[in-house]
Design brief:
Chain lengths: 234, 320
Amino acid sequence: MMSEILRARGLVKRFDSVRAVDGVDLALFSGEIRALIGPNGAGKTTLISLLAGQLRPDAGSIAFASQDVTRWPAHRRAQLGLARTFQIAALFPSLTVREHLEAALQASPSHRPPETSEVLKLCHLKDKQDARAGELSHGDQRLLELAMALVQHPKLLLLDEPAAGLSSTESEMLIQLLSGLRGPAVLIVEHDMQVVFRLAERITVMHRGRILAEGSPPEIERDPQVQEVYLGGS
Amino acid sequence: MKIEMRKLFAFGLILALLAAAPWLLGPFPLGILMKILIWGLFAMSFDLIFGYTGLLSLGHSVYFGLGAYGAALMILHGQPGIAAPLATGLLLGAAVAALIGLLAVRTGSHGFIIVTAVTSLLFYLLAQSRRDLTGGDDGLTLSPLPLKLAGWSAGCADPGPAYLLVLGVVGISFLLLYILVRTPLGLALRCVRENEPRAQALGYDTIRLKWLAFALSGGGAAMAGALYALTNCHISTGLFHWLVSADALIWTLFGGTGTLIGPLLGTGVFFALREGLSGVWQTGYPILVGLALLLMARFFPRGLLGLVSELGRFSRRWVR
């Protein structure tokens, strides 16, 4: 039985006169992989930042792990088991790969035994433990961000375009890695439809700050409104 | 682990050499060495907030000054001796740092510079206005430390056994700082320095971490100030001036930020330079300091320590 891990109700975020997120309702269940798609400027990254706590909503509420976290700062949500990655890899440039994982581990509330070496192997970073993050390739930086999230054993993982700028082999690695995950709910913002259709059980489509459609991949593919937004040019 | 043993050995060797200094050096150079240790502790504490946590404080003179005046006033009006004045200075500086830190760390990196600069101005003016307590520009005169070791006593011109006291306190403080920056807290502080929003997203309460670093760093500066009052026979309100904080910044930048040895080394080099030039070329000191900093910033942004490691790599390549 899947239990609800996150519920957002009526989320609104304005930037000056623009409603970047305009009344979004969203529910995520533990164990599911959900894709969040939509044209550029649809409000996907803003929504992620609202959920993770980098931004505060102008209206609406967020419940995470049965707590109302609407007014919580990012670090408290993280301690409750919410992990995210950023659209542009956000790392600690002069720290080594090993230090990144240590930092992630010691910040996390998880009481599970550390599986750092396993995660390193999964992310193909085992040989690069002593390299500084600033010296890693773009692909490795993205994988390191993901590795930091994974060692924390989050209940919810928010991934903002994790495959952006990855080579096809790296993308393939990412898909393998994510589809092998057991446990956390994953919300993944992604432009690469290959990745989306292979990973996600359900897809949520955003357009101009609102939820346009939600459903299984075939349903979304057939949806005339979605086709209009994507093919009708926006 | 092998490297750690080597470091421990190096630390012991340097400590032993420094402990032998009173028998190797005359009173004048010994006094300079003592000042290097005291101001080196100040610079190391400064680097905890600057190099490790990434916050530029122009207000660390406040905590040095409070440490010095806390200790001096305890000697003059309370209980003289060593332990009580040291503890008073340390606690006063750390407590005020903890209070001011509550405000300073909430202001973002630019605001932090302004708040800390303003606090040093504020405390400087405050100290100036309470001449009855601080002695103003003239300062306070203190008698030498009541410390005797086998007929060897501390004086104003000859530090004598006071040097060993300073070496002991600075040595212990160094070890504590060394351990601190290697604990999980030290790693967390470096995460804050490198990317604060990222650290928050990982679950770090960065405001609390910055506050803690600020209070500890202020405590270290206050300890240095208290040692200064105990050994210098004279202190004045000039200690509160922000230029004193700028000294720590210069020494740290020159020696190597984000390390403990760097600030200590930078302090030593600049004190040696100042003493070497005094009497020979008075106006030369600031000119040379400026020049040295410029060259360092251009060619070795990691400071003297960066230069040393570059040289090491170069010589190894050469040998091969």
